[in-house]
Amino acid sequence: MPSLSVNIDHVATLRQARLESFPDPVQAATAVELGGADGITVHLRNDRRHITNRDVELLRATVKTELTVEMAGTEELVRLIARVRPDQVTLVPELRSEVTTTSGIDLLRERRKLEPVVQRLKKAGIRVSMFIEPDTAQVEAAGVLGADVVELNTDRYSRGWTRKPALLDELVRASGAAGAAGVAVHVGHGLDYRNVVPILQKRVAAGYSIGFSIVARAVFVGLKDAVAEMRRIMEVYSCERC
Ligand code: PXP
Predict the structure, then answer these.
(1) What is the mean pLDDT of residues 166-189?
(2) 105 lines ligand 1 (CB under 6 A)
(3) Residue-range domains of the chain with CATH
(4) Segment 45-93, tens digit of pLDDT
(5) Contact 224 CB / ligand 1 (< 6 Å)
(6) pLDDT digits (tens, 9 = 90+) for 127-163
(7) Nearest by Cα to 15 from 60, 68, 67, 52
(8) Residue 9 in contact with ligand 1 by CB distance below 6 A
(9) Atom of ligand 1 nearest to the CA of 213
(10) What pLDDT sits at residue 242?
(11) From ligand 1's centre to the CA of 134, what distance in Å?
(12) Buried b / exposed e across 133-152, counting CB within 10 Å, b at 16+?
């Protein structure tokens, strides 16, 4: 059964919309864990537009499953996160103007810059994941850089999966390349209660990072049930005996 880490940035986005102290992502993390998630993910952005240092520190102290921090490899963030020590860091590219992460890191271009970042995070005992496009050359570069995990960007798949079956094949191929390179595969971005099914059926990934669709569903059914519904879908469609 693959694992589910729920991204709770959008709870913090709601809080920041009013510059209030609620809803608190730390409280949300507890509900997510009660719903059966295997982990909590937050993106600590350079501009701190949603998740803040306070959130990450409190989550580290309270999350009972696994804490993943998504971040760009800047000096300030590496120093902070090496001290906080989440279970995993997912390195992502970051543009100030974007609404959400738009594409994977280009490891063929960023390799030199990332080498020392990976070493520092690993030295702090943190598992390192890299958010990349589902492309064999990117997967191999992640292996060379010493990534423990690649998170394949499912943004294009999520937008086009009903029209273009090749988008799923792309994920399957990249997952095979990661297996050959000895790197674990996660997937994330734009996944929801429907488009996640073919990926589960093809057994593309060991880990799923899902945020927006679950938090959006939570508006109607509550966070714990929204997570439990996703967990149930994952259980049914990854069942090896069914
Ligand atoms: N993985 C990464 C690297 C992301 O940046 C995001 C969005 O914050 C997600 C997964 C989750 O995407 P979504 O909110 O669309 O489920």
Answers:
(1) 97
(2) no
(3) 3-226 (3.20.20.70)
(4) 999 999 999 999 999 999 999 999 999 999 999 999 999 999 999 999 9
(5) no
(6) 999 999 999 999 999 999 999 999 999 999 999 999 9
(7) 52
(8) yes
(9) 16
(10) 63
(11) 15
(12) bbbeebbbbbbebebbbbbb
> How many A from CA of 111 to the centre of ligand 1?
22
The pLDDT tens digits for 95-123 are 777 777 779 999 999 999 999 999 999 99
Residues classed as catalytic: 43, 70, 189
Contact yes or no for 167/191 (Cβ under 8 A): no
Query: How close is the Cα of 145 to the center of ligand 1, in Å?
Result: 22
**210 CB near ligand 1 (under 6 Å):** yes
